[in-house]
């Protein structure tokens, strides 16, 4: 077993490398060759070397931490989406020798106030911002502070450049409509949220554009809207749609949790999916594969996107690129058993 080392100098000497090279390799700097980074990391593990975070901060001016604010907006700390996202983000950071700081924003607390504390305390080298609003005060604050960040999502309209990664929801919703239209559906439902989130607009715009491209006057779209974290209001909105005298034969939900609610309420209303009603979601959370009969959805690669965001942010922190880093991911259709041909006759549910 290799002798235990306690200082960076000892680790560098054991490898025959300079202290600067070893320090940068442990920090995941891209200027250091990947093979060298891997060699240094392996040697550090085998020798039981743990970097002195305080000393590293004094030398580099960096903490080695990345911040993320988690809003508590419902009975659970995080939802399925954020659970996968946090896991992927943590994996991406650890691969580069960095760590994740989670700061929670209570239900009655503004996210911006918590974000400002993370930034101004100096505990994080950069932050990741999720669920971007049409006009987002968090991004405006970070831009004014010139603080490194990557947004998971985009602003609806912006007069400044910033780093972002997003999934192409507009393309997915257009594809969902086309698939259902080709299966004979003409009466559609959209279950969405009332909050002014950019992803809501982009997905709904993609659906509207696909409808317009067909130019078919027989196509009809009903919309059910409820606050994102109000499950009672969500169920009421879905049931108004399902129990209408002339209900849709196909429903597209803004994301999987809404789609799963549609399938649950359809079952309670004695509607069979997909014989009586087709349902399509977005995100491909774990539950979507197990909710009978299996939800057709779009895989947003949440975990992988978070890993890539970690890589992007660390690049921004270390290299300060002149142009913003941006990436648009094309989600993949996951066809399961919740969609099918339009029913010849609609099954009406008693009020």
Write a concise keyword list for the protein shown above.
alpha/beta, 351 residues, elongated, 4-stranded parallel sheet
Total number of strands: 12
Largest sheet composition? 6 strands, parallel
The chain-level mean pLDDT equals: 89
Oligomer: single chain
- Rg (CA only): 24 Å
- The largest beta-sheet arranges its strands as 2-1-3-4-5-11
Shape: elongated
Strand content: 15-25%
- Helix segment count? 12
The residue ranges in which pLDDT falls below 50 over 5 or more consecutive positions are none
SSE succession = HHHHEHEHEHEEHEHEHEHEEHEE
SSE-based structural type: alpha/beta
In angstroms, what separates the terminal alpha carbons?
Answer: 74 Å
| Amount of helix | 40-55%
How would you characterize the overall build of this protein?
- By secondary structure, the chain is an alpha/beta fold.
- The protein is 42% helix and 17% strand.
- The protein has twelve helices and twelve strands.
- The strands form three sheets. Strands 2-1-3-4-5-11 form a six-stranded parallel β-sheet, with helices on both faces.
- α1 (8-15) crosses α2 (19-26) and α10 crosses α11 (256-268).
- It is elongated.
- The chain starts with 7 loop residues before the first helix and ends in a 17-residue tail after the last strand.
């Amino acid at each position: 077993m290799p002798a235990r080392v306690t200082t960076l100098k000892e680790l560098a000497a054991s490898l025959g490398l300079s202290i600067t090279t070893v320090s940068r390799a442990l920090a995941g700097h891209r200027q250091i060759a990947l093979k060298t980074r891997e060699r240094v990391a392996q040697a550090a593990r085998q020798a039981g070397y743990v970097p002195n975070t305080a000393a590293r901060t004094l030398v580099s001016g960096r903490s080695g931490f990345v911040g993320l604010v988690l809003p508590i907006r419902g009975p659970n700390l995080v939802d399925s989406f954020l659970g996968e996202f946090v896991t992927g983000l943590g994996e991406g950071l650890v691969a580069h020798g960095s760590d994740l700081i989670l700061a929670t924003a209570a239900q009655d607390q503004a996210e911006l106030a918590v974000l400002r504390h993370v930034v101004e305390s100096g505990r994080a080298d950069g932050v990741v911002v999720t669920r971007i609003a049409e006009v987002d005060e968090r991004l405006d604050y970070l831009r004014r502070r010139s603080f490194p960040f990557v947004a998971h999502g985009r602003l609806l309209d912006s007069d400044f450049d910033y780093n972002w990664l997003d999934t192409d929801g507009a393309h997915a919703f257009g594809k969902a409509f086309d698939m259902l239209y080709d299966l004979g559906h003409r009466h559609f439902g959209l279950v969405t949220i009332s909050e002014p989130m950019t992803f809501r607009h982009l997905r709904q715009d993609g659906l509207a554009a696909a409808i317009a491209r067909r130019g078919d006057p027989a196509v009809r779209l009903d919309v059910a809207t409820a606050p994102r974290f109000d499950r009672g209001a969500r169920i009421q909105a879905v049931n108004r749609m399902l129990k209408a005298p002339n209900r849709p034969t196909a429903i597209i939900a803004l994301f999987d949790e809404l789609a799963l609610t549609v399938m649950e309420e359809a079952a309670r209303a004695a509607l069979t999916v997909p014989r009586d009603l087709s349902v399509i979601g977005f995100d491909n959370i774990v539950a979507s594969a197990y909710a009978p009969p299996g939800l057709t959805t779009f895989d947003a690669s949440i975990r992988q996107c978070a890993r890539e965001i970690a890589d992007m942010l660390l690049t921004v922190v270390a290299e300060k690129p002149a142009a913003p880093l941006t990436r648009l991911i094309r989600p993949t259709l996951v066809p399961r058993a919740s969609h099918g041909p339009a029913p010849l006759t609609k099954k009406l549910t008693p009020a």
